[in-house]
Amino acid sequence: MAIDQNMTDELNALTHYNLDSMQIGIKVHHDANPTMISAIQRLHEKGLVTQVDGGYLTPCGMEAAQHAHQLISALKP
User: CA-CA distance, 64 to 73, in Å (whole number)?
Assistant: First the structure.
């Protein structure tokens, strides 16, 4: 399974969340990078974030974000 651009954008969006608390969310404003806006909307459709413009991670989203952070850490030179 190859990682397509949408997946890359979604992984990047997940890394913007603070993993120390599920009570810390993000807000993606209408004038943000269109790639980020689309990625957050897809994460919302998948049930990983609570709002179409960011909000908080769901429990499943928290797990996905933890994996995203771990993957990025493992791949850093």
Answer: 14
